[in-house]
Amino acid sequence: MRKIYLIGIGPGNSDYLTLQAIDTMKKVDVFFILEKEKGFKEFLKIRKEILEKYLDRETYRVVNAKIPKRKKNRKSYKEEVKTWREQKAEVITELIENKMKDGEIGAFLIWGDPSLYDGHLEILQHILKEGAVNFEYKVIPGITSIQILAARHKIPLNRIGESIVITTGRKLKEYTPDRITNTVVLLDNYSTFKDFKDSDIDIYWGGYLGSKDEILLSGRLKDIIEDLKKIRREAKREKSWLMDTYILRRPEGPESNE
Ligand SMILES: C[S@@+](CC[C@H](N)C(=O)[O-])C[C@H]1O[C@@H](n2cnc3c(N)ncnc32)[C@H](O)[C@@H]1O
Fold it and tell me: 216 near 230, Cβ under 8 Å?
């Protein structure tokens, strides 16, 4: 039986691997690297760095594969992602079938943690359901971008007795200011924080967290919003891509009186 590991590698620094991730990597015969994201060269560099730092070169092989670009579906975002994942599933099926022998261990090095806004787990489950190829699989957790953000700003994600909400820029558009508690936002290409600039809300923002280009900014949103917009614009111009995460927090959360 083939075995696949989804190994969380943390978000952007080879120091963020857990001991479990390193021990698991040592057992792997073949690492699959999928070429897709913006800034791919830098993502590839970090993965290579991780392999070189923790493994002896002779012990593993690397197989690169291209995955199709996601095609926009203006009617349904869910359908857009579903179609894209199906296309990825075809590529991954082929890799497992043709690039691994029976009894071998393959792995995908997953940015951050495999359970946080990452499609690989569902893709593997989809492949097994389709029955195209059979394998066992296991998840090795990683440090998420959210943990790095909280650590850098030296804040807990929640205050006493409050909830933490994790969402995306797309979903944040539906929020009104009174719904903001400790609201962690990922995948925001649209600077959706702008919608909250007139309310008394604090923001803790981080770009390229964990990397040498890391940028941090925090304060009352209305006071720092122009700086933040400028920093984001310039970062995107300079590197052509930006990965950022932020926490929106009301000074007195709606739950704090409960
Ligand atoms: C597809 S999600 C993957 C999240 C990842 N699985 C994790 O555990 O952090 C990508 C989003 O995570 C956030 N992100 C990931 N790495 C980041 C980093 N190094 N700095 C800032 N945000 C990051 C950004 O919001 C980005 O749009």
Answer: no
Q: What are the structure tokens assigned to 139, written together?
A: 């998840």
Maximum Cα–Cα distance across the chain: 60
145 CA to centre of ligand 1 in angstroms? 5
Domain-wise residue ranges, the chain: 2-143, 146-249
Confidence of residue 257 (pLDDT cuts 50, 70, 90): very low
Q: Which CATH class is domain 146-249?
A: alpha beta
CATH for the stretch 2-143: 3.40.1010.10
Distance CA 19, CA 27 (A): 13
Cα of 56 vs its chain's centroid, Å: 27
18, 141 contact by CB (below 8 A): yes
Q: Report d(CA 18, CA 24) in Å as an integer.
A: 10
Closest Cα to atom 3 of ligand 1: 117
Among the atoms of ligand 1, which is closest to the Cα of residue 142? 8
Distance (angstroms) between ligand 1 centre and the Cα of 130 equals 29
Q: Where are the beta strands (DSSP E) in 68-117?
A: 105-110
Position 258 pLDDT exceeds 50: no
* Cα gap 247→193, rounded to integer Å: 10
User: Which helix H or strand E contains 3, and what residues bound it?
Assistant: strand 2-8
Q: Which residue has the tokens 């699959």?
A: 32
Q: Residue 8: its pLDDT value, please? A: 98
d(CA 10, CA 109) in angstroms, rounded, equals 9
